[in-house]
Known about the structure:
Residues 152-263 form the FAD-binding FR-type domain. This protein is α/β, with parallel strands linked by helices.
Amino acid sequence: MLSEHTIGIIKSTVPVLEVHGVAITKRFYQMLFSNHPELLNVFNHINQKQGKQPTALANVVYAAAANIDQLEKIIPVVKQIAHKHRSLGITADQYPIVGKNLLAAIKDVLGDAATDDIIQAWAEAYGVIAQVFIDVEAEMYEAAENAEGGWRGFRSFVVTRKVQESDAITSFYLVPEDGKAISGFLPGQYVTVKANIPGQSYTHMRQYSLSDKPGLPYYRISVKREDDSEVKPGGIVSQYLHHQVSEGDVLDITAPAGGFTLNLEDARPVVLISGGVGLTPMISMLNTIVEQAPERKVSFIHAARNSRAHAMKQAVEELAKTNSNVTVQWCYSQPTEEDRLQQSFDKEGYITADWLKGIVPNKDAAYYFCGPIPFMRQVHQSLHGIGVPQADIHYEFFGPKGSLD
């Protein structure tokens, strides 16, 4: 337990963290990787370069400081991060390393303003916060390992099928190399792929949503190839999977993880909204509903540039034809001439509140969405615009948590 004195000091630093939080976390990662380069085998280098990871960490540190006297308020955030930590293999003995470098970064950025009292208070607070993460993650490791067909760490899976779904998205069907059972999962969860790529100095790990329903003898991930552009570098792992991994090759993956999951106990209608490769967890949810809750009405809404970029379209339309509880709507921002001639989409442009209002069954439904952050911001705003309560809105970021404000 923290003393009232320590809590008071931590609370007093909240305004400072609001201003300098990202500078502190950027400096933290610089120090961490300089002192412990082996951790570059764990962290996503692209997220570091784009500033996503430092910003996400700054938000967590700020939230922890603001709620230091009632840490139970941040447990939902802790669990979301803990799922990712478990899937990356983060261990309890790494937390002191993080703490040491975080305190050093605070001192380095704030200079004389970071008094001995402040550093001591943050050392104590970090110990308490870290223990919350360690305890939650220990339960997750145990649950993953003890589940039927479960395991700890990484397990080798063979790529039995590789299927091109669109111009940029390819599915990989994964079967355990040892021939034993695989653990179940909740629709919406993901696995981590560990890639040892020829020519790369470090191991690269990426999390990919499972894109089919649970209960099958394989896992399926559907990966978008991120090409190099003037705006940002391409995806090292996605390019490796698309260009170098073939059927028969072996990939090491973790047991499924993630807190963005379909609530199967909710019998109300469900609306699944996706943009681009954000459809992967939605396909898992859709396939699960069709099998396990065939009476539950589901509206599947997907946004893509055009039919060439639209993955799994035929499979979803087949489900809609054979299941009366399923309706589908397509929104294309840049339809081709062929798309227009074949009338292969329902709306041109982007998803808006007015359009959603006309196609969703009613406001009393569960809404799930995923996709690029600008897309998610628009959907979030649109759902609020038609009066959907925040409690019925569920979403997932691909990568570090961002803001939809």
